[in-house]
Each structure stands twice: as structure tokens, then as C-alpha cells.
């Protein structure tokens, strides 16, 4: 595949391990697996990762920032989610999402959203169940061991690695800001890739 068609160069994807899955594989995620390594780890197809990221980002760019909610309970993704919120102004829950935030208007932290993106369907299931009750679409970053129940769009990727999650949120931030005309090039993004993927 020609590199200029990818959201970032192939080498950037490979360096952060966005394609390294787990030893466990669910039936739904098999379609995204490229091969199984000798150590048993599944390797995701980078082209499919990029295609799904592109679809998700284009879809999310149709919404205003106040209509999108990002939820990320996974510890390795908390910093990236916070940096993403800072760069884009999109509302994020980094850490535990209390049930009812989208469904109970009496709660102090009540949020109205039109679309939800989660970093992992299992730890972020409370947010997914709220989204289902509200009838809003759910986009989820899914590793090879994730189930895709209640997810409208799966983005296959290593959703456990800090650098992998950092790269995803950096790509999403720059593409979102470019689509809204806030920045014209990657260099104008207020937070650099290095910050998103640092240990």
C-alpha cells in the first residue's frame, strides 16, 4: 500500500506497536488479524487499522466538538485522552465513567452527546450502555480480545499500549482540527506527537 494514502507513515504505526494484538482472539476481530506470531500474539492488519481510523475520523468530523464524548478508563490512555481534550476542546472522561452521565439530567455532571468514542469496550461499558439508552452511535478502539457487541464502528488497534493510544488520539486531534479549519498542517497542532506517545 502506498504510504501517502495512510494517515501517518507506515513506520510511525509500527514504531508505536499499533498493530500488536493479544494472544486472545474473538470471532469478530479475526477479520482484522494479519497473522499470528510464533509467540502467539496476533498481529493486526495496519491497512485495515488505517482504513477504520479514517472512516471514524471523517464521521466524527461531521459533529461539533460539544456533541462528541470521549471515554477512556484504561490507565495507559488517560494522558492521551487528556491531551486530546486540551488540543481539541472535545469533552473527555479520562478515568472511571460514572453510569448515568448521559442519561440522568439531574446529575451535576450530566452531558448531552450525539456520538461516543471509547478506548476499550470492556472497561468503558458503562458509557456504552448509556449511549445505547440514548440511541447514539458508539465508536470503539478494539484489540483482538474485544467483543464488538453494542459497537457501531470498530477501530482495530492495540488499545492497551500507551504509545499506540497516544498515536491514535494525536491523529484524531490533528485531523479534527484540520477539518474544522482551525489548523492547516500537522505542524500547527498545539501538542506534538512526542508528547502524546512519551512514556
Tell me the layout of helices and strands.
Blueprint: H1 10-16, E1 33-36, E2 42-44, H2 46-60, E3 68-72, H3 78-88, E4 91-94, E5 115-118, H4 125-134, E6 138-142, E7 153-156, H5 162-179, H6 193-197
Written overview of the protein:
The protein is of the alpha/beta class. The chain has a single domain (3-197), classed as Rossmann fold. Helix content is 33%, strand content 15%. The protein has helices at residues 10-16, 46-60, 78-88, 125-134, 162-179, 193-197; strands at 33-36, 42-44, 68-72, 91-94, 115-118, 138-142, 153-156. The strands form two sheets. Strands 4-3-5-6-7 form a five-stranded parallel beta sheet. The chain has a two-stranded antiparallel ribbon with strand order 1-2. Helix 2 (46-60) packs across helix 5 and helix 3 runs parallel beside helix 5. The chain is globular, with a radius of gyration of 16 Å. The two termini are 30 Å apart. The model has no long low-confidence stretch (mean pLDDT 94).
Mean pLDDT: 94
CATH homology superfamily:
Glucose-6-phosphate isomerase like protein, domain 1
Can you count the helices? 6
- The strands making up the biggest β-sheet line up spatially as 4-3-5-6-7
Q: Just name the CATH architecture.
A: 3-Layer(aba) Sandwich
Number of domains: 1
Keywords, separated by commas or semicolons:
globular; 33% helix; 5-stranded parallel β-sheet; two-stranded antiparallel ribbon; Rossmann fold; 199 residues; alpha/beta
What's a concise summary of this model?
With 199 residues, this protein is of the alpha/beta class. 33% of the residues lie in helices and 15% in strands.
Amino acid at each position: 500500500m502506498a504510504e501517502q494514502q495512510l494517515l501517518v507513515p507506515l513506520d510511525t504505526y509500527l514504531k508505536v506497536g499499533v498493530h500488536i494484538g493479544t494472544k486472545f482472539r474473538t470471532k469478530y476481530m479475526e477479520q482484522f488479524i494479519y497473522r499470528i506470531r510464533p509467540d502467539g500474539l496476533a498481529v493486526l492488519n495496519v491497512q485495515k487499522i488505517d482504513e477504520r481510523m479514517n472512516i471514524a475520523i471523517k464521521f466524527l468530523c461531521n459533529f461539533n466538538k460539544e456533541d462528541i464524548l470521549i471515554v477512556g478508563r484504561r490507565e495507559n490512555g488517560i494522558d492521551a485522552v487528556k491531551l486530546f481534550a486540551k488540543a481539541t476542546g472535545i469533552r473527555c472522561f479520562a478515568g472511571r465513567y460514572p453510569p448515568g452521565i448521559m442519561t440522568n439530567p439531574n446529575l451535576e455532571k450530566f452531558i448531552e452527546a450525539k456520538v461516543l468514542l471509547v478506548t476499550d469496550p470492556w472497561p468503558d461499558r458503562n458509557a456504552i450502555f448509556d449511549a445505547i439508552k440514548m440511541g447514539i452511535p458508539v465508536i470503539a478502539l478494539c484489540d483482538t480480545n474485544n467483543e464488538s457487541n453494542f459497537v457501531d464502528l470498530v477501530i482495530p488497534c492495540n488499545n492497551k499500549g500507551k504509545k499506540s493510544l497516544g498515536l491514535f488520539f494525536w491523529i484524531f486531534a490533528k485531523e479534527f482540527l484540520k477539518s474544522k479549519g482551525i489548523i492547516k498542517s500537522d505542524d500547527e497542532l498545539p501538542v506534538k506527537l512526542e508528547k502524546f506517545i512519551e512514556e
